[in-house]
Design brief:
single chain; about 260 residues; alpha+beta; Outer membrane phospholipase (ompla), Chain C; eleven-stranded antiparallel β-sheet; 6 helices; elongated
């Protein structure tokens, strides 16, 4: 929950503060769209309980241009080559909320809130198809390496409707696996679970769909739904099998307001 909230705030702040948003007299004005709502997410990776958290969304486009190609689980990144490049890349931030052992229902240990810093690469095969690679290092919290491989299709209804859908492959290293899915001898003694030392690799496979629709010149709506299925060592974890679920769902909806930079509607 904190992950998406922080991402949205960071994105919105960067969009509003960027010097590149200044209106060029020879170009159409830029339109900033920003808003919020709520989303339902697993309380921690592998959980079978869900929590309601804030959802913040935002994007910028030229007046008369289509909604930019973006997907619900994109980390906060700044492309160095621009969306129109066949290949774009840049720095990236993601956030992972904490795991409280009280939410698990057993003394498996807490995992602190994690800032995940890294980079992304977009390969824009066509205006309607994109491959995205993300890789981050956890700073605090799980302290592991995580990554996502995504392939998304975009369907448009004119300039004011964007629907995206595509599969996901989630990866992690041994540190991440141990933090969320491992059972140390001390935890085994406290809980009765067997000792479990998971390896890194593919953590989950899934899919994400999202829709953004400009309802009017000033207002729009955004929504998404996602599903991940834990596989491999993550799925076999005694924590997941006894206290959690291999099936990880998420969904959210938000309203946004759109206005011309420096000249609100």
């Amino acid at each position: 929950m904190i992950r998406a909230f922080c991402f949205g705030l960071a994105a919105a702040s960067a969009l509003a503060a960027s010097p590149a948003l200044a209106q060029d007299d020879e170009e159409p004005p830029r339109i900033l769209s920003i808003g919020g709502g709520g989303q339902l997410l697993p309380k921690y990776p592998g959980a079978d309980d869900y929590g309601l958290g804030p959802l913040v969304t935002g994007f910028v486009r030229r007046e008369g241009a289509p909604i930019p190609f973006r997907t619900p689980d994109d980390g906060f990144g700044i492309g160095l080559l621009g969306r129109d490049s066949v290949v774009d890349f840049g720095p990236l931030l993601q956030f992972q909320s904490e795991r409280d052992e009280d939410d698990v229902g057993a003394a498996v240990g807490d995992v602190d809130f994690t800032v995940e810093a890294g980079a992304f690469v977009n390969i824009n095969i066509s205006p309607a198809f994109r491959i995205r690679l993300e890789g981050q290092k956890g700073l605090g919290g799980h302290d592991g390496l995580v990554g996502t491989v995504a392939a998304d299709f975009a369907l448009r209804g004119g300039n004011d409707t964007l629907f995206t859908i595509g599969p996901r492959l989630r990866l992690n290293d041994d540190d991440y696996a141990q933090a969320y899915f491992g059972v140390t001898p001390a935890v085994a003694a406290a809980t009765g679970l067997p000792v479990y030392d998971p390896d890194g690799g593919i953590r989950a496979v899934g899919a994400v769909a999202g829709i953004t629709h400009q309802l009017s010149r000033s207002f729009g709506i955004y929504g998404y739904a996602g599903y991940d299925r834990l596989v491999g060592d993550a799925a076999d974890s005694p924590i997941v099998r006894n206290f959690g679920s291999r099936d990880q769902f998420s969904a959210g909806v938000a309203l946004f307001v759109s206005f011309s930079i420096g000249n609100p509607f």
